[in-house]
């Protein structure tokens, strides 16, 4: 659950844009929209940071001016969206591809328009201080399930570095270049291009040896394939209340509460979706709120009970506070089932 954009990213090409129609290639004109976020504070990096899967995510980039660029697969098709501050308290967005209209229509939702930070009442000094320091936190709502589900499955029981590497390898190989200028490679390097993730059929057709090359074990790859085969039904969860949405996702073998929560935090903007089953989170919450780094899931949920309805926001604020327990054990090792 990253709070800020990572500082080191590949250089982005300068977009060639103007208002009006046109989709697809880098020579097409961008469609645009300007939107004014509610409230006095808004931090784009805090809102969209959780959508990024590592500093080299081929579907997500940041530009030197603070803009964020997403390449995603919408119900209308692939789309690329660039969002950045306009300097007058507004946000300016440009979009390319068949999914451009879909992305621009849902821009406010993605940037947290339906989120209600005022519903959170801090009951710990740490959280009150964190909220004061980062008043621009909003919970995004993408309305897209599969784009968060697959990388979350890849993160099961492995290090974040390992999961991000697998996501990058598979998307770059089986995805398609992002519509608009960011799908181009001005310097001829493949890793300078952005990609839209594969569609459901492409995920289901990835051969076993490619999962092996991506260092993804059979348990996780099988779960991705099962999810891809019922992708349409899973995408419906984005329009459901969090509890039935989580139940829908968990009908797929291999998807449990941890994965469902990670998805719904992003696709539904669910403020109460707590990630249980995480290796480190209970200790972080326990240490921050009670000085107990040995807290388990049950203890974490007990400590978060005063924030029922807003427990995910409480966790985000804890992570943003920077108060984490001292490390007592070695970092989880990166397993290798193949050499990339």
UniProtKB/TrEMBL annotation:
Bias (Low complexity): 1-18
GO biological process, one term: base-excision repair, AP site formation
The keyword DNA repair appears for this protein: yes
GO terms for MF: alkylated DNA binding; DNA-3-methyladenine glycosylase activity; DNA-7-methylguanine glycosylase activity
Transmembrane parts of this sequence: none
Any coiled-coil regions, as ranges: none
UniProt keyword list: DNA damage, DNA repair
InterPro entries attached to this UniProt entry: Alkylbase_DNA_Glycosylase/TA, DNA_glycosylase
Region (Disordered), start-end ranges: 1-40, 53-88
Originating organism: Streptomyces niveus
GO cellular component: cytoplasm; protein-DNA complex
Full protein name: 3-methyladenine DNA glycosylase
């Amino acid at each position: 659950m990253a709070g800020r954009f990572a500082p080191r990213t590949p250089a982005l090409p300068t977009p060639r844009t103007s208002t009006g129609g046109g989709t697809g290639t880098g020579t097409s004109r961008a469609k645009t929209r300007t939107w004014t976020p509610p409230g006095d504070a808004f931090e784009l990096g805090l809102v969209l940071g959780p959508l990024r899967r590592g500093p080299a995510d081929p579907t997500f980039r940041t530009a030197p001016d603070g803009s964020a660029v997403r390449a995603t697969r919408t119900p209308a098709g692939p789309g690329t969206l660039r969002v950045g501050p306009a300097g007058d308290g507004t946000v300016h967005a440009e979009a390319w591809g068949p999914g451009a209209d879909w992305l621009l229509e849902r821009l406010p939702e993605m940037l947290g328009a339906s989120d209600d930070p005022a519903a959170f009442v801090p009951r710990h000094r740490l959280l009150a201080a964190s909220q004061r320091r980062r008043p621009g936190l909003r919970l995004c709502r993408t309305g897209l399930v599969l784009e968060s589900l697959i990388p979350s499955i890849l993160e099961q029981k492995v290090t974040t570095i390992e999961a991000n590497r697998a996501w990058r390898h598979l998307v770059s190989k089986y995805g398609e270049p992002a519509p608009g200028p960011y799908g181009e490679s001005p310097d001829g390097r493949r890793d300078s291009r952005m990609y839209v993730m594969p569609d459901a059929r492409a995920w289901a057709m990835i051969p076993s040896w490619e999962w092996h090359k991506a260092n993804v074990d059979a348990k996780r790859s099988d779960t991705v394939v099962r999810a891809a085969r019922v992708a349409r039904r899973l995408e419906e969860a984005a329009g459901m209340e969090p509890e039935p949405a989580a139940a829908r996702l968990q009908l797929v073998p291999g998807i449990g509460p941890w994965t469902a929560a990670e998805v719904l935090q992003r696709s539904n903007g669910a403020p109460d979706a707590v990630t249980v089953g995480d290796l480190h989170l209970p200790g972080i919450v326990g240490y921050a709120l009670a000085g107990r780094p040995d807290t388990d899931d049950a203890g974490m949920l007990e400590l978060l009970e005063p924030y029922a309805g807003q427990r995910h926001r409480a966790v985000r604020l804890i992570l943003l506070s920077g108060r984490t327990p001292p490390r007592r054990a070695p970092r989880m090792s990166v397993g290798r089932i193949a050499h990339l």
